[in-house]
Structures
1.
Amino acid sequence: MKQKPKIKAIIFDIGGVLEINKTPLVQRKKGVFRHKGVHEYVSQKLGISLDQYFDSIDTYYTKSMEGRISETQTIKHIANNLKLPERKTKKLFKKAYSKNFQTNKQLYREAFNLKKKGYKIAILSDQWHLSKPVHIKTRYAKKFNAVVVSCDVGVRKPNPKIYKLTLKRLKVRPKEAVFIDNQLWNIKPAKKIGINTILFKNNEQCLKALKKLGVDI
């Protein structure tokens, strides 16, 4: 019987995994739930409707997330559309992300313990230029073997290229890696190229799943 490849690397998503939503889930339409959070916070602070807010950030949000415009361009366009000074725009979004997310310190500790045991650890995350400064905390990120962020590398999940890039930077094969994400649509493409996956629900469930894959927790 062919032996399964040993796990050598664990790859963590940020939003919903290493950074946890503080806000409760709300129903958007029948059977569809999501966290009431950053976008609602900003629109309420500015006294505009959510639709008006989304119209204001629309294409620039996507372009920023995919690294098709720079941080400077992102802030300039968003500030102009929201009729705010650029400095105030940055401050508003920083506060919005800080208020709506909390750092999953336990999972970070587990990640760093895994590194001490000889595993490689990585961050793989979709971020735009106004969320990155809050979510990609330097004091944590510098301890990872690889940090792959969509706005920096010009590609986002669920494009297979971003998973393959992460594997390349870690110098591991797909079957030697585990990818942890809280969204099924990001899990599926990773699994399709051979990466072990865990759909994150909470820390306890995640650690049990890692152990089941043979990771020394």
2.
Amino acid sequence: MRMILPKQEIIKAKAVSDFISDSQFQPAGVDLTLREIYSFLSTGRIDFDNSSRQLPDYGKLEFGPGGWLHVPPGAYKIVYNEAVKIPAGCIALAFPRSSLLRCGATVECAVWDPGYEGRSESLLIVQNPHGISLKKNAKLVQLVFVKMSDAAGETYEGKYHKENL
């Protein structure tokens, strides 16, 4: 049976660590917060079997006075504060917080596979022509854990396993 893990199950599974406050735990997920933002400095390459995969170069953007950063329109790589450990019988999906959407920005994420551990990265897209101002540790997405109908036959062991830890 598939189901969304409630707050108490996420906490019990110790699926999220390095969180800033208990207030991040929502009835059906946990809010992930902004640790770092990077601009894209070069081209990336993606192929079928990853034998020619090449990630682009990135430039770290620095937060200014009071921990604020004005982010102009464009695409950016973000890194979260929280480390996640996806239980073997679950996947996780992230959704942008509605306040982010109302400010003209969104976050794109891939599926967090069973067994993935790491301090994840996502794509921040700022579409507001005036940009957006983000404060360090801002809540950007809600991570939702979905229990799979059957146990995973294997868990994630790819290139990004234990990234940014």
3.
Amino acid sequence: MGMNCVGETRPNSGWLQRNSTSTPVMAPDLRTPRSATWDIAYDHRLSTKWAVHLAAIDRRGSHELVVDPITSGPSSQLLLESTGRSRYREIEVGTHFTQGSVADFNVSYVRSQARADLNAFTTFFDSIRAPVLGPTAWAPARADVPNRLFARGRVLPTKRWLVVGVMDWRTGLPYSIVNGSLDYVGLRNTQRFPTYFRLDLGVSHRFRIGKFEPWIGIRADNALNSPLPSDVQANTASPAYGSFYNSEFRQFRIQIRFER
């Protein structure tokens, strides 16, 4: 099974028959999962106000527990083995601007790649009572986000007014297409959710109430009411195929904060 073959499946694996009783089988040579990670970072202050940040990380996992459906005639087995692999690579570039207590801003861009064997044991036997399993595959991991731009900042226009904001833009998460029989259509995790864009904003004012001076303000989560779906109808047999659901809508919150 080649490291660079996206969507590769094992030749002795097959779809678990939906109406058959599968027998759990444990490989006799299970090994303890392990990972090897290295990272490097460099920070440099250009001036009293500006600083830059560079970082890289590489993580490789091996001997991870995966479940593979093995079919042989009318019988089927769920084979638990420790042949799973995973890999994560990331490069980050960021900058930081500060002007004492008046303003503070951070902006970072991350380019990353996450690959894994998709039939991880915990994925199917954690919260799913009766999972339907297909052949395991080396493909983009479910948390693969190739591009991400993240920014946050705060500014004090006056001593009694505070404005804060957080912006998060990133590539949509991957998912797989299935047909009416729940067989995968094409390679695994080659489709993606819409691009994720979220903006949170907040404004606070410092009031004097007796001997107290609390910060009282309002915060808007997902201020632009951007579509942020967490589910997709990926079954080609469904009339709603391709529809995205369960978006996080805009929310307003009142905040009260006390400081000594």
4.
Amino acid sequence: MFVSRTARRRTSLTLGTVGLAAGALTAGFITTASPASAATSTVTLTVNGVSTSVSTSADVVSELLTQQSVPFDSTDLVSPGLKADVFNGMAVSWTPAKRVLVRRAGETTAYRVVGNTVRDVRDELSLPTATTQKFARFEAHRYKMTRFYSAAGKRLSATDPVREDYRAVVHNVRVAYPEGQKRIERRVVKDRSKLVRSGGKRVYREGRNGRKHVTYRKVFIDGDVQSKRVVKSRVVKDANRRVVRIGTGPNWRALARCESGGNPNAVNPAGYYGLYQFSLSTWHAVGGRGNPTDFGYWEQTKRAWILFKGSGRSPWPYCGRFL
């Protein structure tokens, strides 16, 4: 059968088109069958306070931590959670749990905690703090409080960090207000005096200790006295100062020893009296009243000093050389 040139061309074009279509189908099938590259996410990972940016193909947070070799377990603090889905741009944080030993009523229990400071851990474990309850003034009371210690035994403050195997001790506290007597110590006053020989000293006034009634505040921790201080006091007897005079004057003791044997009540039948054997007229002339024997050392020596200032050693012709 005869086929024209035009028909032959159409047939050739048709076959070519079918061939191209078949090739396109074949190429499309091969492309679809090729393996796709795995999807990745960029995550900010904070491990125990240190943040880094990581790329991960993990689907959930637990898988992410495993990929990053983070040694997590169920007691650790993980945000937003081990089962949370991972997505691009998310933030994940991990804080490891620490073992803390809590001792109360004589027994020690181990806990896993994630708090960073003493205050955090105390709140996390609901451990007792010092009481905030109001009591009447001087009212005895009891309460519990918790103290934290490092592994080496150092006592910690509320803001100190908590590390592995730190200890918390719950103490029983008792506050009491006993009463009692307390001595008021006399003060000692020293002054310089011409009525005492130079280089010597003599008690002018003995003075006395006083006494006061006091109320104490005593704090017992686990039965042992922790502190004691006075919170109220009332003076029962005043204290008087002890006065000691330091000598800068003549040797009165030697003069008195020579004149009267050191006896303030000595009487000479010739009409001389006291330590320094005053005549009554001389005694009155230097301001004395009555008889020298009516007075003690200080008054007699005061009048002798007045006499000495005015007349020197002459009133004591023999014994004056000892001054």
